[in-house]
Amino acid sequence: MADMLLVRYALIYCLISLNCDNKPMTEIYKQDETFERVDFSIHPLQKGEYEHCVFHNCNFANHNLSAFAFMDCVFNACNLSLVKILHTAFRDVQFKDCKMLGLRFDECHDFGLSFSFDNCQLHHSSFYKIKIKKTIFKNSQLQGCDFAEADLSNAVFDNCNLEQAVFDRTILEKADFRTSYNYSISPETNRIKKAKFSLSGVSGLLDKYDILIER
User: Fold this and answer.
1) Among the listed residues 121, 46, 111, the one whose alpha carbon sits nearest the alpha carbon of residue 78
2) What is the dihedral of CA 80, 84, 86, 87, to 10 degrees?
3) Domains and CATH numbers, the chain
4) Do the Cβ atoms of 75 and 55 come closer than 8 Å?
5) Chain centre distance of CA 112
6) Which positions ≥6 away from 141 have C-beta within 8 Å?
7) Residue 155: which of 125, 186, 130 has the closest Cα?
8) Which helix H or strand E contains 17, and what residues bound it?
9) Closest listed residue to residue 92, CA positions, set 77, 110, 71, 122
10) Is 70 exceeded by the pLDDT of residue 115?
11) What is the pTM of this model?
């Protein structure tokens, strides 16, 4: 409990420090609330900290969530495409059945950054250079995502489509790709020690050599 309070206060301090214009803070704190079928493009979500909240079937498309804080929240069947998340804090957040096209997770606040994705559409989202060890991507569409220079140690990619996803100088040690497909990962430019791949996915490690693998 003490650790959770410490993290919470640290997040509040970080968000306050981002208020560079020295304007009065009007942020709120919400806990254990459920938001259902709300169109935040019409009724904007008030800036603040949200803890143990559930967002179900809500529309955030093109909304500005910059400098918000979400802790232990669940986003279920929400549209978050092209949402602005500059300095946004996500800690232990679950995204389920969400549409999340073109999100810049690399612009999030990196303190305590942690989330999971289940059956989400994340096409062309960026995870560039962020540390998200042990992140779980399950049944998700990750086409064109940028994982360059990210730390994905012990991450799990379970039944994900990684077509044209970028892995360049990415830390993938002990990551699990056994059930995912369409990835192209160079062992020469990525750290893949003890990463797990299926036999059928080995071709994704050899693309650059332009060789023919028969099955």
Assistant:
1) 121
2) -40
3) 29-117 (2.160.20.80), 127-215 (2.160.20.80)
4) yes
5) 12
6) 120, 121, 122, 123, 160, 161
7) 130
8) helix 2-17
9) 71
10) yes
11) 0.84
DSSP state of 81: T
Residue in the block written with tokens 């809500």: 58
Supply 112's token pair: 């305590």
Amino acid at 114: S
In single-letter form, the type of residue at position 116 comes to S
Residue that the structure tokens 């955030």 belong to: 60
Sign of CA pseudo-dihedral 60, 77, 91, 155: negative
Which pLDDT value is given to residue 71?
98
Mean pLDDT of 191-198: 96
Q: Is 158 within 8 Å of 141 (Cβ atoms)?
A: no
Alpha-carbon distance of 135 to 157, in angstroms, equals 9
Please name the amino acid found at residue 41.
S
